[in-house]
Specification:
Blueprint (H helix, E strand, L loop, with lengths): L4 E5 L2 E4 H5 L9 H15 L5 E3 L2 H8 L4 H8 L9 E7 L11 E7 L4 E5 L7 H15 L6 E4 L11 H18 L15 H19 L1 H4 L4 H22 L8 H77 L1
Parallel strand pairs: 3-4, 6-7
Antiparallel strand pairs: 1-2, 4-5, 5-6
Helix pairs in contact: 2-6, 3-4, 3-5, 4-5, 9-10
Protein name: Oidioi.mRNA.OKI2018_I69.XSR.g14736.t1.cds
Keywords: Hydrolase, Protease, Thiol protease
Family: Belongs to the peptidase C48 family.
Length: 329
């Protein structure tokens, strides 16, 4: 059985296998974390001062050997202009998907500090330092910078680390918008309730299934064919203008991995644009119907005006006939 896409939402995609991870005792993967960050930035907390970094991109940046490699990957995010940057990290040290633990590294521009929110003490220390070093230039951190360990609730099992990352991310964003808990990096560990947050995440995904399932955005119209053609041209363009020129550099392998990431974004954006165009087409049809009705009303109104003119003419003739009759009496 194919692992079909069940949600296509902005730059994130969830498959059937991803949904199974929403229930305990499962470890959240980077796809679910990416989806929740897309949800926060587009639905609940749309604030340009907050930067959300996709965990797949974090992994690529963390493994960069040179600062210019990281800068090239992060340039479009404009992180140096953000007040807060959320960086989900794991302990995987290769270029492959994997790892055994998630934690959250957050850059606070006002205090010029990286803060590490880690639900398992003394873990991910190496990953946090390596990530901070890779992000420092793009984020505008002055060297030397500090990495502060936040006081957080310890996870009670081996699989809730991803939920801790999402719950803490959500709380920091909310408190940043309201100005609450500013003195403690917009965070209160007493407000972390993982079981409730898991239920909340499941409800969010369930709600999105109704709106962003591929069946809601797919179309058999020429728009779909145009989307496929665009994907092919995009793949060719990326190959010719990105992969080939950087062949002389040592970053080729990393850029190959990043290309797949960017193509996924392009495909999702095409699907989103196609859906919006279909909606616009439906609205155009409704407008055409309304314009037709309006035209008919204008015709009816003109006919009524003609009838009123005739009635006025008949009325004047009747008045003249009555006056003429009265004079003969």
């Amino acid at each position: 059985m194919t692992d079909s896409i069940v949600i296509s939402y902005h730059d994130s995609v969830l498959r059937q296998s991803d949904l199974a991870l929403l229930s305990a005792p499962n470890w959240l993967n980077d796809q679910i974390i990416s989806f929740f960050y897309e949800y926060l930035s587009n639905e609940e907390i749309n604030d340009p001062r907050i930067g959300y970094v996709d965990p797949s991109l974090v992994q690529l940046v963390k493994l960069c050997a040179e600062p210019f490699e990281a800068d090239a990957m992060l340039q479009s995010l404009n992180l140096s202009a953000k007040e807060i940057v959320l960086i989900p990290i794991n302990d995987e040290e290769s270029g492959n998907a994997g790892g055994t633990h998630w934690s959250l590294l957050v850059w606070f521009r006002q205090t010029e500090k990286f803060v590490h929110f880690n639900s398992i003490s003394n873990s991910n220390v190496k990953a946090a330092k390596r990530s901070a070093n890779s992000f420092a230039t793009s984020i505008g951190a002055k060297v030397p910078f500090k990495i502060v360990d936040a006081d957080v609730v310890a996870q009670k099992n081996t699989y809730d680390c991803g939920l801790h990352v999402l719950s803490i991310s959500h709380q920091i964003c909310i408190n940043f918008l309201t100005g609450a808990r500013k003195e403690s990096f917009y965070f209160d560990k007493k407000a972390v309730h993982i079981s409730h947050f898991r239920e909340r995440l499941q409800k969010i995904v369930g709600r999105m299934l109704k709106t962003y399932h591929p069946s809601q955005v797919e179309s058999t119209s020429p728009l779909q064919k145009a989307g496929h053609a665009f994907n092919q041209r995009a793949r060719q363009y990326i190959h010719e203008t990105v992969l080939v020129p950087v062949g002389e550099f040592e970053v080729l392998n990393k850029m190959n991995e990043a290309t797949g990431f960017q193509i996924g974004k392009i495909e999702n954006e095409v699907a989103s644009i196609s859906a919006r165009l279909v909606q616009m087409s439906a609205r155009d049809n409704e407008i055409d119907v309304l314009l037709g009705n309006l035209s008919q009303l204008i015709i009816d109104l003109e006919q009524m005006n003609s009838n009123v003119s005739k009635i006025d003419s008949y009325t004047k003739k009747l008045e003249e006939a009555i006056k003429s009759h009265l004079k003969t009496l």
